[in-house]
């Protein structure tokens, strides 16, 4: 069965949340390769009525409609320079370090903002109270580095809950679940309900003595989903606090880790091999009908393969909540202006235009935006049923951005993912693993 989005193509060194976003968008880049807004190689000495926008390959898809409308209304030509994820980071790093850039606007992954904040123009004037009120709170928080706004969010994402409606709406399943657990079968909203539903649907469906349907997956090869449970646990800070103190071994992080790996270790409600399951693996399990639920990025909702045995039987609900309530981890990209470009006013005009016309991104293949009102415009429209779940998740009080630190990717790759994988081993001591993680993170950040 074809997997519509394979995050593995970018390699293990790329930030895992962005791997999925990047790969999903790569499909749209192919479709739009012939559009007039494409191109590359433009330099800063281009005509005054032009802008060069540096983007990750999939970012062009989200910005093409905006750029075309901007050209139509202002006469300013927009040229996209497209690079793969790692190539984009390297290009940004090289040019920002040199103090001379060949682009006027850049699309930045959220986790890059702390690294490049000193090289981009502050955007404080753009973030009026009206603008901030129409952006998800976590995005407003993440856009600020050392008290200055350094990027305007252009699109965002979050994990939500996908579930099989053929199972959840089956009268026999509903009756059996209520008889066993004492409440109605429905998309779970709490950790306890998620555990119940996951355990209920884990079974041998063909009578051969082997479990062939699992309630959920557990992803050991990516960190973002566990981080969401940290916020669900009620943690005020994720891994690090604003002062740089490491909080990864506190009670909330422990509760999150116990819940997260417990779905596999104690309940055995996830398929074998959880330590190596990543986004692509989880997606394949769900689309093949081997799991009843999947916590996954919202944009995948309309991308179910036509040959999937559960095509047409997928529902969407907000991300689950723990003691601290519903929470996800936002996956936004931002537009920033290099301080070195001579086209400051024109670049600022483009960023404002991108904000004003943010809903055009929903018409792209990735189908995402950053403004609350942009998503709300599609409320009730067929094919956009997942937007309610996405908006509720992104609006939740405990949905928080990842820590603003230049060391974040090293922390993820060197500490968090290995720690999760060790926690999925039989007999793991989760508190000890978190204590060790704290020491390792302190060695990186100090």
UniProtKB/TrEMBL annotation:
Domain of life: Bacteria
Pfam families, sorted: SBP_bac_1
Record keywords: Signal, Transport
PANTHER family: ABC TRANSPORTER PERIPLASMIC-BINDING PROTEIN YCJN-RELATED, ARABINOSE-BINDING PROTEIN-RELATED
Family classification: Belongs to the bacterial solute-binding protein 1 family.
Name of the protein this chain belongs to: Sugar ABC transporter substrate-binding protein
Organism: Kocuria rosea subsp. polaris
